[in-house]
Amino acid sequence: MLLAIDVGNTNIVLGLYDGESLTRSWRIKTDAYATADEYAIQIKALTANSPQITGIALCSTVPSVLREMREMIKRDYSEIKTVIVEPGIKTGVSVSTDNPKEVGTDRIMNSLAIFHRHGGPAIVVDFGTSTNLDVINANGDFIGGALAPGIEISIDALANRAAALRKIELQKPRAAVGRNTVEALQSGAYFGFAGQVDRLVTQIISEIGPVKAVVATGGLASTVVEACSTITHLEPDLTLEGLRLVFERN
Questions:
Q1: Which CATH number does the domain housing residue 61 bear?
Q2: Catalytic entry in 106, 134, 141, 237
Q3: Residue 202 lies in a domain
Q4: Cis omega (within 30 of 0) for bond into 100
Q5: Exposed / middle / buried, residue 99 (Cβ in 10 Å: 0-12, 13-18, 19+)
Q6: Cα dist. 53→15, 76, 79, 214 in Å?
Q7: Other CB atoms closer than 10 Å to residue 204's CB: what's the count?
């Protein structure tokens, strides 16, 4: 079994692969101050009833967690073949941007997975801590994209800065016209972020031409994808799939 680990700023997503099939997945909170021991305890508890892990593929956008994950793997999984996505690892994705080192490894994994599944050109919309739009061309090269504040941090910021407003649960409102404060906030978040994504996707397509797929992924994708007219596929496991593919390549 391959254990794929995607470390994001808010959550760590773990998936177990049996060949090409994702059999289990989990989402735990990212803690930049957690130690290698603490992560080892969590991962071993989650996978305790699963078949033996024979490989690990890891990408991380949080340097402190990556450091602790390296230590955990070195100490607890030293006999297991491990691929950590970093310079020198063969991904099959050419990064054609002004500064390729700035591109997060999760965005490269998304690009690899979407090209494998759909070909290119294509767009990934990753609803995470930030809302990332990753764009690949017909050759599978990552050519750039757009970054916007994520849904949850935007809701948090509004609640923190406006004395009369509160933090809300993101869900589809009854209507765009909210009849109370909670519904009004839900409307602004739900339809507002869907409109933001649709506008960005439309603008990108006007610049690069038609695409084969616009894929939504990330923790909040399933919540708002219904309101997005430009999204063609919902694939929550896209980053994990990229990790599986990069493990095979290496």
A1: 3.30.420.40
A2: 106
A3: yes
A4: no
A5: exposed
A6: 11, 12, 10, 33
A7: 20
pTM for the full model?
0.91
Taking the C-alpha atoms of residue 165 and residue 182, their distance in angstroms, rounded to an integer, is 9
Query: Is 106 a catalytic site residue?
Result: yes
Kindly state whether residues 144 and 204 are assigned to the same domain.
Answer: yes
**125 has which bridge partners?**
133, 216
Tell me: the pLDDT tens digits for 89-111?
A: 999 999 999 999 899 999 999 99
pLDDT one-digit tens code per residue, 8-29:
999 999 999 999 999 999 999 9
- Residues 140 and 208 occupy one common structural domain: yes
Is residue 142 domain-shared with residue 75, that is, in the same domain?
Answer: no
Low-confidence ranges of the chain (pLDDT < 70): 163-164
Instruction: Report residue 179 as tokens.
Output: 């009849």
97 domain residue, yes or no: no
